[in-house]
Write a structure and sequence with these properties.
123 residues, 8 strands, single chain, 2 helices
């Protein structure tokens, strides 16, 4: 199962303080908008998202169709196909996407310990 780029989306209390902390670990802001309380930060091929006030828990995030530089992949498995495969395997989805659509869409699920997983296709 090809899930695309991987990152961890962190629920932070103070985005400016978190940005400074992760910069001290060698991360650099590569996307997002700190004035809107979200940033994407990279350290080599490691990607984290900082999100203030947008969700309750940290989220494991996968982006079908992208590599870790947010560059489009030529071939990828569409999120609707991933949804179908997961449902066939008996995986419970928290949020599904309309399988009759095309383009950007997302699904959400949780692992057995309640950790949220977002599969978020942007194209």
């Amino acid at each position: 199962m090809e899930l695309g780029a991987f990152s961890v989306s962190l629920n932070v209390k103070d985005i400016h303080r978190s940005k400074e902390f992760y910069e001290n670990l060698g991360f650099e802001a590569t996307g997002g908008n700190i004035d809107q309380n979200w940033l994407i930060m990279k350290n080599d091929d490691k990607v984290i998202g900082l999100f203030q006030g947008m969700f309750e828990k940290n989220i494991l995030t996968f982006n079908p169709g992208w590599n870790n530089n947010a560059e489009e992949l030529k071939g990828f498995t569409d999120v609707r196909d991933l949804q179908k495969e997961l449902k066939e395997k008996g995986v419970e989805l928290i949020e599904e996407t309309d399988e009759s659509t095309e383009g950007p869409a997302h699904i959400t699920l949780e692992d057995p310990d309640g950790n949220p997983i977002l599969i978020d296709q942007h194209r």
